UniProtKB/TrEMBL annotation:
Swiss-Prot/TrEMBL keywords: Oxidoreductase, Peroxidase
Organism, scientific name: Ganoderma boninense
Annotated GO MF terms: peroxidase activity
Protein name per its UniProtKB record: HEME_HALOPEROXIDASE domain-containing protein
Taxonomic placement: Eukaryota, Fungi, Dikarya, Basidiomycota, Agaricomycotina
The UniProt record lists the keyword Oxidoreductase: yes
Domain spans labelled FF: 1-43
InterPro entries assigned to the protein according to its UniProt record, in alphabetical order: FF_domain (IPR002713), FF_domain_sf (IPR036517)
């Protein structure tokens, strides 16, 4: 019944009552009023979520990077889009929704980036190499490219590992532009 009668995500219970009272399915409904009200709000919320998801997809098509500012968007085009008109958004509301969407994307990208850093075997390898000892680490590793074993063709892995500053490596990775290129699919 609600699917047939309501298509506007901004409609209120009071404003839709005259329309619903003409529908025999509503008038003859065995549901108590509070359950009808609950179903109404759940349905309208679902409509709103659907239009917000469509608006977010539009944002994603115009703002692929996390560093895209609202001023770089085609605001007039977005305002005249179906999701924005259905949600009744004006420029300020559209900007607020875009900023909220960007914060959520940035947060999710940050979580994904931190997870990548935690799983990064390269960083882990150099971190552990500097801490462990023993013959394997104290021994030099030979270059295999020309097949000679001269003293100058050997690398002291322990010295190399101690020269790697993990904090600096992580700082460089975090500041890297790759963070700005991570795209989070919001739906």
């Amino acid at each position: 019944m609600l699917v047939d009668a309501i298509r506007d995500p901004q409609v209120s219970w009071d404003s839709v009552q005259p329309q619903l009272r003409r529908d025999p399915r509503f008038v003859n409904s065995p549901l108590p009023m509070n359950q009808q009200l609950h179903l109404f709000h759940a349905y309208v919320s679902g409509l709103r979520d659907k239009h917000l998801a469509s608006l977010h997809a539009l944002f994603a098509s115009h703002a692929p990077g996390l560093d895209t500012a609202f001023t770089a968007l085609p605001v007039a085009s977005l305002l005249s889009s179906l999701p924005a008109t259905k949600l009744g958004y004006e420029v300020a509301q559209l900007e607020h929704e875009f900023e909220k969407w960007q914060r959520e994307r940035t947060h999710e990208a940050r979580l994904a980036f931190d997870q990548m850093l935690n799983e990064n075997s390269f960083v882990e390898f150099w971190g552990r190499l500097g801490k462990i000892g023993g013959k394997g680490i104290d021994a030099s590793i030979k270059y295999d490219d020309i097949g000679e074993d001269t003293e100058e063709d050997q690398v002291d892995m322990k010295a190399l590992a101690k020269s790697v500053d993990l904090r600096e490596m992580i700082k460089v990775l975090k500041a890297s532009r790759t963070l700005h290129r991570i795209h989070v699919d919001m739906g």
